[in-house]
Amino acid sequence: MVEKLRAGLLGAGMMGRHHARVLREVEGIDLVAIADPAGDPHGVAGGLEVLPDVEGLIAASIDMAVVAVPTRFHEDAALKLAAAGVHTFVEKPIAETVEAGQRMTKAFADAGLVGAVGHIERFNPALQELRRRLSAGELGNVYQVATRRQGPFPARIADVGVGKDLASHDIDLTAWVTQSDYDRVFAQTAFKSGREYEDMIAVTGRLASGAVVSHLVNWLSPMKERITVVTGEKGAFVADTATGDLTFYANGTIPLEWESVSAFRGVSEGDVTRFAFPKREPLRVEHEAFRDAVLGQASDVVTMQQGLRALEVVEAALESARTGEALAP
Q1: Are 130 and 72 in the same domain?
Q2: N- or C-end of the chain: fewer Cβ atoms within 10 A?
Q3: CATH for 293
Q4: Could you tell me which of 93, 66, 62, 92 has the C-alpha nearest to residue 77?
Q5: CB of 282 closer than 8 Å to CB of 121
Q6: In 3D, which of 100, 67, 106 has the Cα closest to residue 83?
Q7: Are residues 225 and 153 part of one domain?
Q8: By residue range, what is the domain housing residue 70?
Q9: Considering only CA atoms, which of 120, 151, 134, 124 is closest in space to residue 245?
Q10: What is the CATH number of the domain that holds 319?
Q11: Whole-angstrom Cα distance, residue 61 to residue 3?
Q12: Domain check: are 149 and 80 in the same one?
């Protein structure tokens, strides 16, 4: 029998509780230790002792760790885990600053360890199906990617703004589904809730491929929305990552007879298709990818280098909002 990977979890809060559940469910992983200085507010420890810190996790002789603590603590925990030879998955964003992310990325690379970042949207079934269909050329050239990520303020987020917490999702998924990096960004922010950090950001930019991008992100809307629209030469895909649905709006091929409409020399409305495909829980797929990477197998895990790149683009967007200048990340 193949031995299971011994896993430790740092952070048993709102996100940590989901990690604990999935780690117990994924084949080949044994959750053997949980640490959180705040205790176990959601009762996820089961029969495990709740350890006080990352040193306690390391002492439990773990092979891999999941770090689900506030962003400002990511670097300290990750560097200690790297020094102890532990493969580590860190929740996004990778770190509070680009410099911290660079130190983390270097530490895991130098140690020959797997370092991963929890950009979970890549594992959403709608976006995985979208990535597959774009790769197959079903849209042709991509002209534009527009995302909307809006909803109420989550009281648990205290140490970063909406840019690093949420816009990082959209920046990472856009670069991933298009397989094209960001060339230039411009952003505007708003501070409406009396907090130190921005609670609204609007980012526009261009990818290296030439595609135009826009991201509308806020914590100020009572309406929760998680939408990605990719428009190209053959139509438009709409991915709803809240439901896992993917819909394709094809460009029409039927001649229009209505004179006032047919005078417009653009595309016309064609068939609309909502695809059926398996919808597995993104967090489970993400943990399976991390497990496979630790085992040295082919994996779609989000590397620390990729997580660092997403943070670099977010930082450029925030700096653009401060200066009023478009920037190259």
Answers
A1: no
A2: N
A3: 3.40.50.720
A4: 66
A5: yes
A6: 106
A7: yes
A8: 5-119+284-302
A9: 124
A10: 3.30.360.10
A11: 14
A12: no
Q: Do 55 and 49 touch, CB atoms closer than 8 A?
A: no
Q: CA-to-CA distance for 136 and 139, rounded, in angstroms?
A: 8
Structure tokens at 269: 């409305």
Q: Are residues 30 and 127 in the same domain?
A: no
* pLDDT digits 0-9 by tens, 70-116: 999 999 999 999 999 999 999 999 999 999 999 999 999 999 999 99
Residue for token pair 């670097």: 75
Cβ-based neighbours of 256, under 8 Å, separated by 6 or more? 262, 268
Q: Which tokens is 121 given?
A: 């949207």
Please answer whether residues 227 and 238 qualify as being in contact, where contact means their C-beta atoms are separated by less than 8 angstroms: yes
* Cα separation, 94 vs 289, whole angstroms: 17
Cβ(305)–Cβ(105) below 8 Å: yes
Same structural domain, 146 and 191 = yes
Dump strand ranges (E) for 54-181: 64-67, 87-91, 115-118, 142-150
